[in-house]
Amino acid sequence: MTEDSKDEYKEEQDKRDVRYKKSMLNAKLFAFNQRAESAGIPKRFVGIGPKPFSEYLCPKYHSVEERKKIINFIYGDPLGLNEKPFVVIDGGDIWTRKKAAFAIMFRLITCDNFAEFIDCRELVHKLNTFDPRDVKVGEGRNDYTKSVKEKNVICIGEFKRGLFSPHCEGGDFLDEILDYRFNKLNPTIVTFQEPIFKNNPADAICGQYMATMSKKEVLNENPSAKYLRIRVRMMDDE
Amino acid sequence: MSDKPKEKPKPKGKEIRNFLTTNNEVVMSAAQKDEPRFISILLKSKEKLQDAMAFGITPAYFRNKSCGFFYMLMVKQFEKHNSALTKHAMESIMDRQKDVREEDKSNRKSEWERLFIKEKSDEDYDMLKQDINDRYLQDQAFTIIEEEAGEIVNATSNQGEIVKRIQDRMNSIQGVDPDEFSLVMPFDKGTELAYDYIQNRKTNPEANQGIMSGIRALDEEYYGFERGSYTVISGMTNGGKTTLMFNIGFNMARAGHNVVYVSLEKKALPLNVRLLCLHAMVDYNRVKRGGDGERGINLETQTAIDKAVIQLEDLKPNFEIIQMSQDDTLTKIVSKIEEVKAQKRIDVVILDYLGCVGVESKTVGRHDIDQSNVSKRFQAYCKRNNFVGITGLQIKASATKEIRKKVEKHGQSDDIQDITIQSEDLAGSQEVIRDADNSIGVVLNADSPPTCMYAHSTKARDNQGHRTVELAFDGFIGKISDPVSVADDIQEINASFYGDDINNMDDLFSAEEAKEKKAKNKIAANDVDSLSDEPEPKQEEKSNTTVGVKSVKVDEEADPLDKLFGD
């Protein structure tokens, strides 16, 4: 091979590498869209960016500085969000909470994760159900718990303490899930139907983790919980 | 009268025997000289005797009956007592014979002594061994010709069957492919060779003994594939086995090795098209779609392919594709490979894939045993010819579901070591893996098309770790490579989904910040007025009543973000 042809070869090799990277990137973009769909994120809420997200944040609760930091943390720090086991969203209306949750879920998907949105009512129903005939064939609550534990990213939508019953073991199973996910640093997003405030009664009906996350002050006494707290505002449109 | 010399009539039938016997006198004479020399060497060296036995020599090899007799005694003595046929042993054996005359016993003992002193050195051992083998082959061929010649010459029907029978008999001649692989290595020689090998590895670590796959993650696991080794790649249907074997083979060919790819599923032409697309790094689907439109073979694609052709003409990678069909037997496959081998040296043989090979011996109800036999034969073939042998194997349907579940949940941050394919997950006989030198289980991630392949080393000889590695998989180009950098990708991906917003995040609150600053300045300027009964700022009040937590007002010393993160 002559020197000229070696240079030409190298140049062509570089072009091929660029083509390959572009192809891989396109494949990933395609894959992320598919993952969003299978995660339960409606198409119109895929890829909510920093600007619309900033409008969800409650200006009365979060100062400008805080809002900036939240935005920078979610959108500017590519892998940092993977290390926060819990993201807690409350306030506003159901649509805004959901959109905020979808935005964060999709952000995590773009960090090469798989995600799933789980409605809290459905989750509690499955965890409370002892008889395996009431759930999907072949999956009792033990199997279901195991599968939820091990998912990359989950979002528990519209958590409400009232969904739990003192006579069932839903809280214990939920603790098992959240404890595993905390240890493994698998991100869990929880949207709260009711606003979080310090005077929430301390009870373990919904498990220790949710009881802890329901009351902000108690968190300071419990060093094991680590979460990102977001309050959204009421918005008129969907 | 013509002076034209008479043509010798072609021998036929029984005349062949006479013809050959006349020419055999020279051979007979050589045998009478060589065989005693050979026996003499074996009498003095147990290692040489072991070698001759491993080579496959039997008493039938010897035309000299006496030599055959002594060889038989030596083999029995070795098998029974693990010792050479010494003089004492010979005498003892003879003395124990009841039905042999004393004179014969004495003759045998004397013959032993004559043979023992006949050959002083073992320099000619290999040559003598080869000559004895060749003469034995000649004997066997001659016997077949003698028995079959008359029939083929005189046949008036079923000539094809007769020819096939002769062919089969010829193929079954013992010693045609003498076993050059088997050997007995004495300890001192083995130690010497091992020491030389270690020194060579120390001074030339770059001179790899194995052939590299071109995928760093696999090469770090296996240190290249050794010549003569046998690797099984297992996976689900559409699990990436062919793509991986194809990529490995092409990488090896581009590195200068001669690769033969035997395809039982796909035709050669589509594989060559894939190869070209792989080298050019273009989407193979464009070729499938066709046309010169934007989604077909557009200008950019065409240019890339043209340049790839030119480069491949320069590089001349040796990647030969043998196209065969499912159910072709291994014998047929090997004969095709031998045709290639006759023209050039082969380094790597890839058989795609084991489940498609037709079986020659059928075990009723046990297809797994038949498949295992095919695998063993292919492995032995590669070992004897010093090829790197690679093949593919399916995994069981029942294992597929479990493995898919494991893969579904895995993202970038997860520990992938629990994605494993064990030997019990494989379809067919576990003997295939048990006998293989290396085994790689592959599974694609849950994306469609997949973006990632997990390769688990189910078995790696001399390797302690059974690790799972992650490889990048491009389903459009059909390329498997080491993982591409993640950090750069995130930036590009974010830019694709979020556009310029991601770069202008600081501007999102600039208007509000300006407003707040103005409000603060106003408050500061009206310090005196603030002592009046004016209510406290709305934001603070609302925070206190609604949230019931510490003030929203930013504490200049503490990081505001701390409030957001429960601790």
Number of extended strands of chain B: 12
* DSSP strand count of chain A: 5
Number of helices of chain A: 9
As laid out across the biggest beta sheet of chain B, the strand order is: 5-4-6-7-3-8-9-10-11
Mean pLDDT of chain B: 80
Read across the widest sheet of chain A, the strand sequence of neighbours is 2-3-4-1-5
**Tell me about the biggest sheet of chain A?**
5 strands, parallel
Gross morphology of chain B is elongated
Helix percent band of chain B: 40-55%
- General shape of chain A: globular
Q: Which chain pair has the greatest contact? A: A-B, 78 and 68 residues
Distance between the termini of chain B: 123 Å
Structural class of chain B: alpha/beta
Q: How much of the sequence of chain A is in beta strands?
A: 5-15%
Per-chain topology:
The complex is a heterodimer of chains A (238) and B (567).
Chain A: H1 3-39, H2 50-56, H3 64-76, E1 86-91, H4 94-109, E2 115-119, H5 120-128, H6 141-150, E3 153-159, H7 170-184, E4 188-192, H8 207-214, H9 216-221, E5 227-232
Helix pairs in contact in A: 5-7, 6-7, 7-8
Chain B: H1 15-44, H2 46-55, H3 65-81, H4 87-96, H5 102-118, H6 125-154, H7 159-171, H8 187-203, E1 210-211, H9 216-222, E2 225-226, E3 230-235, H10 241-254, E4 259-263, H11 268-280, H12 284-289, H13 299-315, E5 319-323, H14 330-343, E6 348-352, H15 367-385, E7 388-394, H16 397-408, H17 431-435, E8 438-444, E9 452-460, E10 468-474, E11 479-481, H18 486-498, H19 510-525, H20 538-546, H21 561-564, E12 565-566
Helix pairs in contact in B: 1-2, 1-3, 1-5, 1-6, 4-5, 6-7, 11-13
